[in-house]
Each structure stands twice: as C-alpha cells, then as structure tokens.
Amino acid sequence: MKNIIDALAKTGFLSLDDFKAIIHCGNAQDTEYLFSKSREQAQKYYGNKIFVRGLIEFTNYCKNDCLYCGIRASNKNANRYRLSAEEILNCCDNGYSLGFRTFVLQGGEDMHYTDDDYVSIIGEIKSRYPDCAVTMSIGERSRSSYERYFEAGADRYLLRHETADCDHYKRLHPDKMSFENRMRCIKDLKDIGYQTGVGFMVGSPYQTEESIYKDLQFIKEIQPHMVGIGPFIPHKDTPFADFKAGSCDLTLKLLAIIRLIKPNVLLPATTALGTIDPRGREKGILAGANVVMPNLSPVMHRKDYSLYDNKICTGEEAAECRFCLSRRVESIGYEIVTDRGDCAAAPQS
Ligand code: 5AD
Ligand code: FES
Predict the structure, then answer these.
(1) Strand pairing of 335-337 and 49-52?
(2) Best mutation site among 321, 326, 329 for ligand 2, i.e. most ligand atoms within 8 A of its Cβ?
(3) Where does the pLDDT of residue 346 fall: very low under 50, low under 70, confident under 90, or very high at 90 and above?
(4) 136 C-beta closer than 6 A to ligand 2
(5) 220 HSE (CA, 13 A, CB side)
C-alpha cells in the first residue's frame, strides 16, 4: 500500500485499481500514511493555516428538484425564507468584525432575485469591504449572468458538479436538469476567470467506485481552485429518505487523494462531515483539508436551510461558530487566519 501512496504523491494520479486498493484498505497504519502524505502537501502550500469562509445561506427557495436535497421545490414541508439585501449586508458586517474576509452567498435557484439585484449586492459588499473576496453559489445560470456578477466584483463561484458520471447524474436529478448544462456552467465560470469550486457528495445513492474515479479524473482535467466534498446525508422529505449516509472514512480518504491529485487545491472540511462525525471537521483537516465554512446566516433561519437532516450549528450565533472552530482547529495544531484565503500558486512542473 505504501508504494501505491508514494506513487500517487509523486505522480499526482492513480489507476482505477490503485484507487480501489486505497479505498478498500482497512489497515490503520496505511491510512495514516496516506493522511500524512496529504497533510505534507497541504502544509507545503498553506502551512498550518486554515482559511475561513463566512457562509450566508440567503434563500432556501429553489426551482430545482434534485432528489437528494431538502430544499427541493417539491418539498412542501420546507419553511421557505429569503433575506433582503440589507439582511445580507448585516451578515457581512457581523462577519467582517469576526475576522471573515470571504463571504459566500449561497442559495437555492431562486428566481426572485434578478441579476440586477445580485450586481448591486456584490457591488455593495465589495465597496464596503474592498479587502474581502465574494463567492457566489447560486447554481446554474447563463454565461451572460455569470459575466455580470464577475464584472460586479464576484471573485469566486462554487458549483458542485455532483457527479462526473452522466448516468449517475440522471439518477440524482429530475429530467429537467442536464449533465451537459452543469458542465457548460463550470467551463463558463472557469473561462470567465472565476476561482471556481466543484465537488460531489460521498456515498450518494447509486454512486459506484467507478463513478468516484470519474470524479477524480474530472478534477484532474478541469483543475478547479476548490473542491467541496462531504458525505451524502438523507433528508426525510426527499425521495432518498431511506438511503444510508456516506461514510466519514471514505470521505477522509477522498480528501487525502484529492489533495495529492491537486496539491494546492482549496479543500473544505464541510459541515456535512462535521454532521456525521462530531470530530469530522478536525479529521478532515488531518486528512488534508484547509478550509472551514462556518455559517453567518441569521439563527432564526438556519434550521430552514436544511439540505440534509441533523445539520450541526443551526442554533449557534456566527460568533459562537467562529470561536468553536478556532478552538477545534487549535486543538489539532492548526490556526484560523483572517485572510481572503486565495488559492496558492500552482506547483512548477
Ligand atoms: N447530503 C449532503 N449534501 C447535500 N447537498 C445537497 N443535499 C445534500 C444531502 N442530502 C450538497 C450538494 C450541493 C451542496 C450545496 O450541498 O452537493 O451542491
Ligand atoms: Fe458551529 Fe461549532 S462550528 S458550534
């Protein structure tokens, strides 16, 4: 196993067979060796610094009906809310004073907000906090909309590809959504100049080892700045309510493999990982993650942004999460920094 891991660390890729060998490996020493290699790479680019992003979940209205997601349009039990521009800016004010220098505006695909609304919100955030990065995470849009947000000052865009396997994509999404359009969006975002994040769920229904391998090939090919992965967790009001959650162990191994495939990538230890394991985020950092994304949304709405069941941090104020995360990160020898947290320059090859 050690030679497979060494070869992965050296070449930045691995064969399907070697990939399977790593994910089936139950030997704790080998797994620790994998994590030590990925930590080494993370430390090479980012030292012991962990970047924070302030996540503002500003609307849970969504026109889509992804089968896994708790805020899907046909979930009649979702208690819908949307924040006004002023409420969003209040979240940023609070976040700025807590040391956040990146704001992530995430929401369902809510057509209530026009492109003009987004342009004005982005412009206002950038003029109030010129030292901050703005990340948009509002789903699939036209190229011209993406261009307008970018011109208004948005720096980054997160759009998980969800799976790089077209057949798998069809089993996770209704017919109205298409794999081709997802890919088109990701290519447009990169092309326009956004620092772009992709990602997928670990252990989503119908996922196979082969489909995960395609995700890795996709990451290698597209060279995103950020990769968000977390376990799939069922939501009771979705068609996938009875599927089981993805595992923490597999998520950790994939974090480590992704770090070795793209050593300078921004890799969050996600809230979903912290939800399936109380020390999931710490374990994620020890497997090579270097970003955490605590919530800045108003506490009164947090429970309603429930993509999956039992989400953590729904009762805590932004400041509580910020300090809780500092403690957690320090307990494993890392530190959170007040910084935009841009992607480090790529290795010279
Ligand atoms: N479990 C885990 N992650 C989920 N997401 C959506 N629903 C779930 C779920 N049930 C993820 C998707 C989406 C991101 C915002 O949250 O990957 O892109
Ligand atoms: Fe929210 Fe710990 S990060 S309470």
Answers:
(1) parallel
(2) 321
(3) confident
(4) no
(5) 15
Q: Is 324 in the pocket of ligand 2 (CB under 6 A)?
A: yes
Ligand 2 lined by 260 (C-beta under 6 Å): no
pLDDT band at 348 (very low <50, low <70, confident <90, very high): low
CATH of domain 2-337: 3.20.20.70
Quick check: 105 pLDDT over 70? yes
User: Whose C-alpha lies nearest to ligand 2, atom 1?
Assistant: 321
Run of H or E including 150: helix 143-152
Strand order in the sheet with 102-107: 54-59, 102-107, 133-137, 156-158, 195-202, 226-231
The Å distance, Cα 294 to ligand 2 centre, comes to: 7
In contact, 157 and 194? CB cutoff 8 Å: yes
CA distance 237 to 76: 9
Pairing of strands 54-59, 102-107: parallel
Whether the CB-CB separation of 65 and 74 falls below 8 Å is answered with yes
136 C-beta neighbours (distance < 10 Å), count: 26
Domain residue ranges in the chain:
2-337
pTM listed for this prediction: 0.97
Measured from the Cβ of residue 253, the count of other Cβ atoms closer than 10 Å reads: 22
Mutate to test the pocket of ligand 1, among 232, 244, 295, 311 (most ligand atoms within 8 A of CB): 232
